[in-house]
Design goal:
Chain lengths: 340, 371
């Protein structure tokens, strides 16, 4: 394991079997994460981004592959292989924020109980007073009024509930947070509040985020590096600006051209992506994307492309990545006046 | 009512009586849509967008009481006020689904899982166009083909669970278009879909609009989608339209603080990468027992104390076709309104002090009833 990295995902596979059909939800995904970074994972629904996140917190056991993790004490381990007891101590350091703030909080627990539940599970000997105190401090940190903690989740709005979810994830003082569509269910103005909060907390607590989302503009704002997933495979992985400005995979190009831009004067020519994401139980041969790709050749239909580092820190899985020149977002070419 | 307008909503109120008091989610909405035009209705959840459009079709819950005027310029029966019609009567049924139709937010929920897609599209055809079942099936299939559903013969007999989200949304659009309506209400039609599918659906809607020359009322909270789809935009906040105008004008030159905040909180790809996004603090208040004040007062960064919390600004025109409801705005019309409001507050306060001086004994009066 590289000494700079906090997390290394190597050739991760996850297969689900049901009624004799094997669904490959995640196929051969590899990437590295440095401490303090934010990694964005984007893709259409059904591309396996949530499964990937859940494999990383080990809510699912991966079918194959390794996830190396450096604990706070500096110990390196492949936590897909550690036993239950050890796993419990590692889980304190890897926490998750869920998508839907309406269904991820128990309606029959007070907010105080929700926030301190991780403490109860992990520090059974801690006194009640200390737990309460910690929960209150954490609530203040995420911008909740501690006097409201005796209320139940239904009394809070969507944005506040997401803050509760964040407080619950942070109370164990983790190193890595997996945010699975953490802001997707919120209104734009509330989204901005929560994103700002995540940003501030990252600086303050030196957190590493794995930010899973389908919203490309939010991911561009928050991430240092972005991975694009398609049908369980990583199609492209690079630093944010590099990926958005110079995409190497045709899928990334199409995805970027479909993002609605909040400016009626900008007319982006959309690259049509025919059809829909294929069934992962019965994926196409060769490159998974070939049926929808406009640059498809005979080779793409039969041979599976390797996930290679084409430019420094820019990984892509496409046969024709070298020869194609794809269109990304033009950075800093718009006049300044348009920026609010 | 002007001739080229297809619909005019005038001073629309929706009240919901509850045990705790009366909820007023829509408090005087005004807008009009021309034939073939797309109006975007934008706002956070809880701002009354959906109730407004449901009021047009008269499909709000029984508890909701709508008042005001919704004038509809019907091809068949001329001008009519949709609100005055009996929500269960013949006239509104002739409008609903035929002349004005609606696309709902979640295609998975909008279809009944018990019937085939074809059956559900056909329901509309049989009701409004023809009683001949064979003909109706042909018409329905033709529309399904138009909205880009491949292999229609097979798809016609499939159930909703056999469709993907994007395909279902296409089927829903087919159902809305089968009677060739004059106006389409689209309530967050792409919110539940992926960006690539969203782009396909939006393009489809634009094509269909051209082909059928429909007016579209497009409800969404996604400003990117509005920029792509709409000719004009009306921004709603707490049951009122706070700014309306040409889409280009509003994006380039938003005047109301709420619109500014809304546009500012969207991160633009390729824009300057600021550390923090602009955010509007707080949340939309509950629309109950609202004081006579600007609804946005608590969250506004341009509020004027003693004015904005004592009077509610009306929608005034600052440029041709650009209206705004705010006191703190340098335009002439707003200034005039502000002066008027200041005058009114002053008079009211004087009256109140005079009243208080005249009736000092009132507070000593014995109170009846339970505390």
């Amino acid at each position: 394991m590289n000494s700079e990295n906090i997390l290394e995902v190597k050739h991760l596979h996850k297969r689900f079997a049901s009624k004799g059909v094997v669904v490959k939800a995640v196929t051969d995904v590899s990437f590295d994460v440095k401490p303090g970074e934010t990694i964005g994972i984007v893709g259409e629904s059904g591309c396996g981004k949530t499964t990937l996140g859940r494999c990383i917190v080990r809510a699912y056991d991966a079918s194959e592959g390794e996830v190396f993790y450096r604990t706070r004490d500096g110990e390196e381990l492949d936590f897909l292989k550690v036993d239950r007891k050890k796993m419990k101590s590692i889980r304190k350091e890897i926490q998750m924020v869920f998508q839907d703030p309406y269904s991820s909080l128990d309606p029959r627990m007070t907010v105080l109980d929700i926030i301190k539940e991780p403490l109860k599970a992990n520090y059974p000997k801690m006194s009640k007073a200390e737990m309460d105190q910690r929960a209150k401090d954490m609530a203040t940190k995420v911008g909740l009024n501690p006097t409201y903690l005796m209320r139940y989740p239904h009394a809070f709005s969507g944005g506040q509930r997401q803050r509760i979810g964040i407080a619950r994830a942070l109370i164990l003082n983790p190193q890595i947070i997996v945010c699975d569509e953490a802001v997707s269910a919120l209104d734009v103005s509330i989204q901005a509040q929560v994103i700002n909060l995540l940003h501030d907390l990252q600086k303050e607590m030196k957190l590493t985020y794995l930010f899973i989302s389908h919203d490309l503009s939010v991911v561009e704002h928050i991430s240092d590096k972005v991975g694009v997933m398609y049908l369980g495979k990583m199609a492209e992985f690079a630093e944010t600006e590099e990926l958005y400005a110079h995409p190497l995979h045709p899928y990334t190009e199409a995805l970027l051209s479909a993002v609605p831009v909040a400016d009626p004067t900008v007319q982006i020519e959309r690259i049509p992506l025919q059809g829909e994401i294929p069934n992962p139980a019965n994926p196409p041969s060769g490159c998974y994307f070939h049926g929808r790709c406009r640059y498809c050749t005979e080779k793409c239909k039969t041979e599976t492309p390797e996930f290679v580092e084409l430019k420094p820190n820019h990984f892509v899985a496409c046969h024709r990545a070298k020869e194609l020149s794809l269109r990304g977002f033009a950075y800093d070419t718009k006049p300044e006046a348009k920026d609010e | 009512m002007e001739k080229d307008n297809i619909i005019e909503v005038k001073n629309l109120h929706v009240d919901i009586a509850m045990t705790e008091g009366t909820l007023t989610p829509v408090r005087g909405v005004n807008f009009e849509i021309k034939r073939g035009e797309t109006l975007g209705l934008v706002g956070e959840s809880g701002s009354g967008k959906s109730l407004t459009c449901k009021a047009i079709l008269g499909i709000n819950d029984k508890k909701c009481k709508a008042s005001g005027q919704i004038l509809f310029n019907s091809k068949e029966s001329g001008e009519m006020d949709l609100l005055s019609l009996n929500p269960k009567g013949k006239e509104i049924r002739n409008v609903r689904g035929k002349q004005i139709s609606m696309i709902f937010q979640e295609p998975m929920v909008a279809f009944s899982p018990m019937y085939t897609i074809g059956n559900q599209i056909n329901e509309c055809t049989l009701l409004h166009i023809t009683k001949d079942k064979k003909k109706a099936k042909e018409i329905s299939m033709e529309v399904m083909r138009k909205v880009g559903i491949a292999n229609v013969e097979k798809r016609y007999n499939q159930y909703p669970h056999e469709f993907s989200g994007g395909m279902l949304q296409r089927a829903l659009i087919a159902m809305a278009l089968v009677c060739n309506p004059d106006m389409l209400i689209a309530d967050e039609p792409t919110t539940a879909l992926d960006v690539t599918i969203q782009a396909q659906i939006l393009e489809l809607m634009k094509e269909m609009q051209k082909e059928f020359n429909m007016a579209i009322l497009f409800i969404t909270h996604d400003l990117g989608v509005v920029a792509r789809m709409c000719d004009r935009v009306a921004v709603m906040y707490l049951g009122k339209v706070v700014e309306s105008g040409d889409a280009k004008t509003i994006y380039a030159n938003p005047q109301h603080p709420y619109t500014r905040g809304l546009i500012g909180s969207v991160h633009k790809i390729g824009g300057k990468k600021e550390e923090r996004l602009f955010s509007i603090e707080g949340t939309v208040p509950l629309a109950m027992n609202l004081p006579e004040a600007c609804g946005f007062y608590d969250r506004c960064d341009a509020r004027i104390e003693g004015l904005c919390n004592k009077a509610d600004p009306e929608l005034v025109e600052i440029e041709p076709g650009h209206q705004i409801a705010c006191f703190n705005c340098p335009h002439e019309a707003c200034k005039a309104q502000r002066a008027k409001a200041e005058q009114m507050i002053k008079e009211r306060e004087e009256r109140e002090t005079a009243k208080a001086a005249n009736e000092p004994a009132k507070s000593k009066k014995k109170k009846w009833g339970r505390k």
